[in-house]
Amino acid sequence: MKANIYMFYSFLVAVLLTAAQTVWKMAFNKIGEITFSLNDFHKFFNPFILTGIVLYIIATFLWFKVLHALPLSIAYPILSVSYVFGYFIGITVFKESFSFVSLIGVLLIMTGVSLLAYNVK
What we know:
Layout: H1 2-31, H2 47-69, H3 72-78, H4 81-92, H5 100-119
Helix pairs in contact: 1-2, 1-4, 4-5
């Protein structure tokens, strides 16, 4: 039972990382590219950029708990669920292109994660 909560935490880390990447993409769509020059320093204080940073910090601390409790060979592949989330957010939020080949890839990722999760005791 204890492993199940850490599996959930792994899943939550994937959600948080995907949310962070999503808000960063929204920021870049509004403010453009960030270069590492003094002229762009103010862009780091965009609310979307700051939100993404906070989400990454929360995800990192949660990930520390996961790494303490689960084998890396189980925990790390679960993060690939973030690719699934990112794919669907790209299509729905950012109106990116859909392809059946990509969908098959997403289904394979989900199958692999499900097999890993099934094997955890």
